[in-house]
């Protein structure tokens, strides 16, 4: 019988060409990069192997074109602040995400100090985060949202305006050609950020590759995962370059393979993973090809999602830096594909359906008919339909100034539920083996932005005996000075932390102005 908590008292001894390790990380994105960096700092002697099915790191969800690119801090994302039945605004999720993002910035700041992130401007830049709505009901909602958020110290700098000229100062491209009589409102947080999670991940993988005891194996795909009688895990992994399959054993597995995580969780056959399903949603961007327009806009402007649409489809006119160049995107437009990864297989969804999750999948489908209708409408959109959506945000937009480009693939979590049978989740969820020897990350936004907090929680659950030691506590506090305290509750500490990370990450002035 397996113990409730696995032990690291018995360490593997690494030998040349030995296929044993202490830790295996599956997927070379921001999550594995973050966890790998933490573990190598905390336990330098551990042997870590990282496997990625693509021939380069960050090729899927963490790549700039595929990831949302926004430092999700709940400054502008309206879906994190729902209006309740009594008309009040619930800011709990927004506060949690905002404080988690501050923790991420703390960790990245330490990596800058240590030279792991050599040029922070390649990974994170300051850019205003704005929300923009129109119509009486939406304007009133935004006003109430601003009033509720401004009471909290993490949002105290948020500005609100329903004045046409003031909003035109914030977002001239959106206001140009707009009816001055239209009822509209906007909020602005000047300290927002644009984050290149691909660049962040590459910096951490570069550190890991140069560290003792770490192997990064690209073009390797996990074909099977099974538990051995001694409690260790055995993985069958195919090397695409040699077309050979090898077996690897490890004490701990983290599955951070984006949309590919669910099939791997099913291969592990842990009881805790049964009943989970996935609903893939693809996306597309309209990308501006006119330099004058790109230069005129300097903000991330988020609107309200259409009724029945998934949160990842919240429309936004988005300035970001990609491949060293300033870009302007609008979207994303949702779509449907049975692939779980952008570079996946059309058989991903059919092959993920098991007896244990077929009822949650059916139930979630029945309860989300508006979503299905929305996706059908999105898939059948013409170029004129997409332009019409853009015109709501940019009245002077011209079709010839924009090109359609594929964005990333997301798999929304479907989990069993006693009352509903199955429910569709739009957030991020980690599924753990009972003894903590395997952890799987499922879901989408705001995962990347809160990756540091997610990994801190993971280590607390998977390595409780080690996380509580003085050695780990001291190192975690060195890496994240606020560790053990709540930035959501401690106003003084939050302001001190934000000031420190602003300096270290070079975020004092906008890099896009």
What would your notes on this structure say?
A hairpin with a 5-residue loop joins β9 and β10. About 2% of the residues have low confidence. α1 packs parallel to α6, α1 packs across α13 and α2 crosses α16. This protein is 32% helix and 25% strand. Strands 5-6-4-13-14-15-12-16-17 form a nine-stranded mixed sheet, sandwiched between helices. Strands 1, 2, 8, 9, 10, 11, 18 and 19 form an eight-stranded mixed sheet that branches. The protein has a two-stranded antiparallel sheet with strand order 3-7. The radius of gyration is 23 Å and the shape is globular. It is an alpha+beta fold and 513 residues long.
Stretches where pLDDT is under 50 for at least 5 consecutive residues are 9-17
Tell me, what's the shape? globular
Proportion of beta-strand residues: 25-35%
Q: Rg to the nearest angstrom?
A: 23 Å
Strand order of the largest sheet: 5-6-4-13-14-15-12-16-17
Largest sheet: 9 strands, mixed
Please report the distance between the alpha carbons of the first and last residues. Answer: 61 Å
User: For the residues shown, what is the average pLDDT?
Assistant: 87
Helix content bin? 25-40%
Structural class of the helix and strand makeup? Answer: alpha+beta
User: How many DSSP H or I helices?
Assistant: 16
| Count of β-strands | 19
Question: What's the layout of helices and strands?
Answer:
Blueprint: E1 20-26, H1 30-42, E2 48-52, H2 92-113, E3 124-126, E4 129-134, H3 136-150, E5 159-161, H4 164-170, H5 172-175, E6 184-189, E7 193-195, H6 197-209, E8 214-218, E9 220-227, E10 233-239, E11 244-255, H7 261-268, E12 277-288, H8 291-296, E13 300-302, E14 316-322, E15 325-335, H9 348-352, H10 358-367, H11 369-379, H12 383-393, E16 402-417, E17 421-425, E18 428-432, E19 438-443, H13 451-462, H14 464-467, H15 470-479, H16 491-504
Parallel strand pairs: 1-2, 1-11, 2-8, 4-13, 11-19
Antiparallel strand pairs: 3-7, 4-6, 5-6, 9-10, 10-11, 12-15, 12-16, 13-14, 14-15, 16-17, 18-19
Helix pairs in contact: 1-6, 1-13, 2-16
């Amino acid at each position: 019988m397996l113990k409730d908590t696995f032990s690291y008292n018995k360490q593997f001894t690494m030998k040349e060409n030995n296929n044993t390790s202490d830790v295996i990380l599956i997927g070379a994105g921001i999550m594995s990069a973050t966890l790998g960096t933490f573990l190598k700092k905390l336990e330098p002697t551990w042997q870590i192997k990282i496997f990625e099915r693509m021939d380069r790191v960050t090729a899927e969800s963490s790549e700039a074109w595929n990831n949302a690119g926004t430092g999700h801090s709940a400054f502008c994302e309206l879906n994190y602040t729902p209006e309740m039945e009594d008309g009040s605004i619930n800011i709990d999720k927004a506060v949690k995400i905002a404080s988690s993002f501050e923790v991420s910035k703390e960790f990245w700041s330490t990596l800058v100090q240590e030279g792991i992130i050599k040029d922070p401007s390649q990974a994170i830049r300051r850019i205003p985060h704005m929300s923009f709505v129109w119509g009486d009901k939406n304007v009133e909602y935004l006003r109430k949202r601003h009033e509720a958020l401004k009471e909290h110290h993490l949002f105290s700098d948020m500005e609100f305006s329903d004045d046409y000229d003031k909003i035109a100062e914030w977002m001239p491209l959106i206001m140009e050609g707009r009816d001055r009589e239209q009822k509209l409102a906007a909020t602005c947080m000047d300290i927002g950020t644009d984050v290149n999670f691909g660049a962040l991940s590459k910096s951490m993988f570069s550190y890991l590759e140069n560290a003792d005891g770490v192997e990064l194996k690209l073009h390797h795909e996990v074909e099977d995962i099974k538990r051995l009688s001694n409690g260790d895990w055995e993985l069958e992994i195919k090397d695409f370059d040699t077309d050979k399959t090898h077996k690897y054993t490890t004490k701990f597995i983290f599955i951070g393979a984006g949309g590919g995580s669910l099939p791997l969780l099913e291969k592990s056959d842990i009881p805790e993973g049964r009943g989970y399903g996935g609903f893939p949603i693809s996306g597309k961007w309209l990308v501006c090809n006119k330099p004058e327009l790109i230069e005129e806009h300097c903000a991330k402007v988020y609107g309200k999602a259409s009724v029945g649409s998934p949160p990842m489809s919240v429309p936004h006119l988005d300035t970001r830096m990609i491949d060293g160049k300033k870009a302007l995107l609008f979207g994303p437009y949702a779509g449907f594909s049975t692939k779980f990864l952008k570079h996946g297989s059309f058989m991903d969804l059919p092959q993920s359906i098991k007896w244990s999750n077929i009822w949650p999948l059916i139930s979630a489908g029945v309860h989300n008919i508006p979503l299905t209708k929305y996706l059908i409408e999105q898939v059948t959109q013409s170029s004129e339909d997409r332009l019409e959506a853009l015109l709501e945000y940019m009245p002077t937009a011209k079709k010839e100034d924009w090109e359609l480009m594929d964005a990333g693939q997301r798999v929304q979590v479907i989990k069993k539920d006693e009352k509903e049978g199955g429910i569709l989740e739009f957030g991020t969820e980690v599924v753990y083996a009972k003894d903590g020897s395997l952890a799987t990350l499922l879901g989408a936004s705001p995962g990347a932005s809160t990756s540091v907090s997610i990994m801190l929680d993971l280590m607390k659950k998977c390595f409780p005996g080690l996380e509580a030691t003085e050695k780990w506590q001291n190192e975690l506090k060195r890496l994240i000075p606020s560790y053990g305290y709540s930035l959501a509750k401690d106003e003084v500490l939050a302001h001190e932390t934000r000031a420190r990370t602003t300096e270290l990450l070079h975020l004092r002035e906008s890099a896009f102005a």
